[in-house]
Specification:
Helices cover 31% and strands 8% of the residues. With 370 residues, the protein is of the alpha/beta class.
Length: 370
């Protein structure tokens, strides 16, 4: 049944449970109408999950009600009755299905790399598949600030040609990756999620992007970040909020929220984030992916927006630990252009993943820590 303006005004009063005057109620009704239209539009979008999460959130995870541009309402989804199901072991709580399916965008990097090396999958085919997911999921999740479609397809074609000539570079050759938008990519704006830097176009690749390209990786876009990487929610007044892929009514963590979303939803096989006080680890935890803050000095920060030189780190977000080891292997190593870069030789991180974990003791830190 279609809702009238009067119905929307009444619904606004009921939802907000506040004594509204006519002007406030009209504004809320208008905002609710826009949300209703957006939900109707999103009904046909293949989201990265099949069930919605309907648990009461942990403290601090609901959307801020006053972020700029929403008219004072939260961007919520209205699922159909068939989109949720009870779980016998958790009572009335609702649980999301794992979005990591066996589809091409979700395969482990090692598996995808083997298919590419055997020429069973084309880097162009893979890149197009991820670009298609980005197009479908940009509105509901907002993982990317910029998508470098033409450049990504050109790089994919070059990778395909190189591999066809027998010049295979390794497990990242032809693999699409996302780059947090405080990390320079040549010819692409580095906005830092802020209007202050909106006109700045990077003249050269950051060292980490240079190393990824040298390994054959394909840069597919610049991922969403909290403004100037200065927060843990990825709610951004200029580019809108990034949304948690398991439940879009919640935050994805930050400040590398877009990278966590992109990896969790098959919009990138891996993505780079930065971590000063948790900005790789928070989105990894809230988006259900792997996030690695490497040892200080292990990965170059040249060409990366500085927040605190003694605390800043660049690290990968991936869907699997072995994928993180592959990406770290490409990133790690001394960079003479970074004064804090370690001279210690990088290890074989993938080989280190083969160890036996039985008997390993894990320490749990209590209280505030970075």
């Amino acid at each position: 049944m279609d809702l009238t303006s009067a119905d929307l005004r009444a619904l606004a009063r009921e939802l907000l449970d506040l004594p509204l005057d006519a002007a406030d109620a009209e504004a809320c009704a208008s905002a609710l109408g826009k949300i209703r239209e957006a939900v109707a539009h999103l009904g046909g979008v293949p989201l990265p999950f099949n069930e919605a999460v309907f648990t009461e959130p942990a403290h601090g995870t609901r959307w801020l009600e006053d972020w700029e541009g929403t008219g004072g309402t939260s961007p919520r989804f209205t699922p159909t009755a068939s989109s949720v199901s009870d779980t016998s072991d958790r009572g009335p709580q609702r649980r999301a299905k794992d979005p990591m399916s066996a589809d091409l965008p979700f395969l482990p990097i090692e598996t995808t790399a083997a298919l590419i090396a055997r020429r069973e999958v084309s880097p162009v085919e893979l890149t197009r598949a991820l670009l298609s997911r980005i197009e479908q999921l940009t509105a509901p999740l907002n993982a990317y600030i910029a998508v470098t479609t033409d450049e990504a397809l050109r790089a994919a074609q070059e990778a395909e040609a190189e591999i066809g000539r027998g010049a295979y570079r390794g497990p990242l050759h032809g693999i699409p990756v996302g780059i947090k938008d405080i990390i320079d990519v040549a010819g692409v704006p580095t906005t830092g999620g802020s209007r202050i830097l909106g006109a700045y176009v990077a003249p050269a690749d950051s060292e980490v992007v240079r190393r990824l390209r040298a390994a054959g990786a394909i840069v597919i876009g610049k991922t969403h970040t909290h403004e100037l990487a200065g927060g843990g929610t990825s709610i951004n007044r200029f580019f809108g909020p990034a949304r948690n892929p398991w439940d879009p009514t919640r935050i994805p963590g930050g400040s590398s929220g877009g990278s966590g979303i992109a990896v969790a939803t098959g919009m990138a096989h891996a993505a780079l984030g930065t971590d000063t006080g948790g900005s790789v680890r928070l989105p990894a935890a809230l988006c259900g992916v792997v996030g690695l803050k490497a040892t200080f000095g292990r990965v170059s920060r040249r060409g990366v927006l500085t927040r605190a030189w003694s605390l800043d780190h660049v690290g990968p977000l991936t869907r699997r630990v072995r994928d993180a080891a592959i990406v770290l292997g490409a990133l790690a190593g001394h960079d003479a252009g970074d004064p804090q870069s370690s001279r210690r030789a990088a290890a074989d991180y993938l080989a280190a993943c083969a160890g036996d974990l039985h008997g390993l003791r894990v320490g749990v830190l209590e209280g505030p820590f970075f």
